[in-house]
Amino acid sequence: MKKIINRCATRAQSPDGVRARDNPVLLMIGNPALSLLIGLFVILMLATKPALAQSASTVKPMKWPNQSECRSLPQSKDQAEADLVLAGWCIAIDDRRGNCIACHTFNVSPWPASLPVAGNLAPPMVAIRARFPDSALLRQIIEDPSSLNSHSSMPPYLKHEILTPQEIDQLIAFLGTL
After folding, report:
1. Per-residue pLDDT reduced to its tens digit, 94-134
2. Following CA atoms 83, 89, 90, 94 in sequence, which dihedral angle do they give, to the nearest 10 degrees?
3. Whole-prediction pTM value?
4. What Å distances lie between residue 70 and 21, 90, 91, 173, CA to CA?
5. 19 pairs with which residues across the strands?
6. How far apart are CA 2 and CA 12, in angstroms?
7. Quick one: how far is CA 1 from the chain centroid?
8. What domains can you pick out in the chain, each with its CATH number?
9. What are the C-alpha distances in Å from 8 to residues 1, 3, 20, 26, 162?
């Protein structure tokens, strides 16, 4: 790699004879692949910044129930959006169903004192709306993660009938607020 950069650097010279290896701007100009890569990175960062800011601002502080409080909540088929989010939270913390907090961290405030500290084995559940603007990919990961990554240690929640499609909808509604 260094040999390729040096070869490009010796070819690219400014009008005053300065070689590219002495000037990082000329190095980028002399290497189109590097220029393209840096340009794509800048575009990606600029494109995701508003989405990340929007995602961070949608998390509303609320009293998040613990497992026993979740189990006493009424279950209904027709739920409002707020109820879907709360039901999704309850699935994420329930050690009999989703148990997402065993492996993932969640940025919710305030964290229920009766819950253990969330896990750190899997990616943190932050900026989900920005990372998964189309919830179909998130759904596929939850339903059967091995369909995308054969080495995934995450259980296939729908394939093994751990969660129902309705519960997955609730979980996705909650994750969309993070």
Report:
1. 988 889 999 998 888 888 888 888 888 898 988 998 998 98
2. 160
3. 0.61
4. 62, 5, 9, 16
5. 13
6. 15
7. 32
8. 2-51 (no CATH), 67-175 (1.10.760.10)
9. 11, 9, 8, 10, 56
